UniProtKB/TrEMBL annotation:
InterPro entries: Band_7, Band_7/SPFH_dom_sf, HflC, Stomatin_HflK_fam
Role according to the record: HflC and HflK could regulate a protease.
Organism: Desulfovibrio legallii
A Pfam family assignment: Band_7
Protein name: Protein HflC
Biological-process GO terms, alphabetical: proteolysis
Main location: membrane
Record carries keyword RNA-binding: no
């Protein structure tokens, strides 16, 4: 009996459609639930090939890997009434797909709930510490405590929270401006103080230098007067000794000295021979 090719094709097509509606595969990074008329069955399907009732049951897949969620930045207040902007993230995974589907339905819904829980716990714990403790000394303790509390709260939703971390802590824009203003004012105050101290030290050094200069000049003038007095006394003694030895020669030498001093080079004078200056006996 000869078969109709069209009928064979139709049979194969029906078998392919039936197989696609009956068989489903779950990847090794996934877990799956089978919904029957919108209600999930109790079994959670792992990696492999599985069978379902076509057209009555459908499959919902869930990621079994560790998921990251970055929360939007929000403000919190420390115990010393300082506002701080927290930028945090969380690492979590689905541990009970059935409970997760009943409570959260989808990953975006779980992330929205996780965001609220993490922020409420962060705000509560940050409010118990000072700004310095949140930023530096107690940061690790806060993160560990937040992780434990959030994981306990999210466990009822079929979610395990592995880690909650603060990526960055900033101050609000208004606080930053105020802090920068105070820092600028403090630096200007220190600069003025350093300048005034420098001017005071400069004045002291300059005054001390002027005093030392006056002392040195006075001492030099005194020493010069002493030496000049000694020279004049020695010259007078020398003149007296020369006069006593040869009065006429001394007088003649003094007359020549006077002529040299009076008659300079290119000097022209008309004098009588009776002038005492020219009449040296």
């Amino acid at each position: 009996m000869r078969r109709n090719p069209l009928s064979v094709v139709l049979v194969l097509l029906v078998l392919a459609v039936a197989a696609s509606q009956t068989l489903f595969t779950v990847h090794q990074t996934q877990r799956a639930l089978v919904l029957q008329l919108g209600e999930p069955l109790q079994r959670v399907y792992g990696p492999g090939l599985h069978v379902k009732i076509p057209f009555i049951q459908n499959v919902v897949y869930f990621d079994a890997r560790v998921l990251d969620y970055e929360a939007r930045s929000r403000e919190a207040f420390t115990v010393d009434k300082k506002a701080i902007v927290l930028d945090n993230y969380a690492r979590w995974r689905i541990i009970d797909p059935l409970q997760f589907y009943r409570t959260m339905r989808s990953i975006p819904g779980a992330q929205a709930r996780l965001d609220d829980v993490v922020y409420s716990q962060l705000r509560a714990l940050v409010g118990a510490y000072t700004l310095t403790e949140v930023v530096s000394s107690h940061r690790a303790v806060i993160m560990k405590e937040v992780t434990n509390k959030v994981s306990a709260l999210m466990h009822n939703y079929g979610v395990e929270v592995l880690d909650v971390r603060i990526k960055r802590t900033d101050l609000p824009t208004e606080n930053q401006r105020a802090i920068f203003g105070r820092m600028r004012a403090e630096r200007e105050r220190q600069a003025k103080q350093y300048r005034s101290e420098g001017e005071e030290e400069s004045t002291r050094i300059r005054s001390d230098a002027d005093r030392q200069r006056a002392v040195i000049l006075a001492e030099a003038a005194r020493a010069a007067e002493v030496e000049r007095g000694k020279g004049d006394a020695q010259a007078a003694a020398t003149y007296a000794e020369a006069y006593n030895k040869a009065p006429q020669f001394y007088a003649y030498q003094r007359w020549l000295t006077t002529l040299r001093a009076s008659l300079k080079d290119h000097s022209r004078m008309v004098l009588s021979t009776a002038t005492p200056l020219l009449n040296q006996q």
